[in-house]
Design a protein that fits this description.
Layout (H helix, E strand, L loop, with lengths): L18 H6 L1 E4 L2 E4 L5 E2 L4 H11 L1 H4 L4 H46 L6 H12 L1
Length: 131
């Protein structure tokens, strides 16, 4: 008896279609489709999956919207979601910068062998952090 081979999703070339954005309120986020209304992801990018999510969760509120009104609401939700995503990346970048700065200061203190209260060490640390 022949073995059944599993289908691989990667081989089926499933890609996010631009028209699904306004139709079902989804955007492509990394490798998944992300609903801009409820921030849920749909792992498999098939139109059926996106349509089913939209009809089961958002049909009553967004079905009657058409044309420019639908587009305006979609872009407003999309901008809100992307601003939330960038907020988290900004704080991550700030934390990374602070960690690097503390390592640089610790290196200068260890190299000099003097306490941080020494004025020359403080001046050297400030000059190092400005660059």
């Amino acid at each position: 008896m022949a073995k059944k081979r599993k289908r691989k999703i990667d081989n089926e070339c499933r890609q996010f279609q631009v028209e699904w954005s306004l139709k079902y309120f989804f955007i492509k986020s990394s490798e998944n489709a992300l609903c801009v209304i409820c921030n849920e992801t749909v792992a498999v990018m098939k139109e059926y999956k996106l349509r089913r999510h939209h009809q089961s969760k958002h049909q009553d509120k967004y079905a009657q919207l058409e044309g420019k009104v639908r587009a305006e609401i979609f872009y407003k939700l999309q901008n809100k979601l992307t601003s939330q995503m960038t907020l988290f990346s900004k704080s991550s970048n700030e934390n990374e910068f602070l960690t690097k700065a503390s390592y640089k200061v610790a290196y200068v203190l260890a190299k000099s062998g003097k306490p941080f209260t020494d004025g020359e060490v403080v001046k050297e640390c400030l000059l190092l952090l400005q660059t």
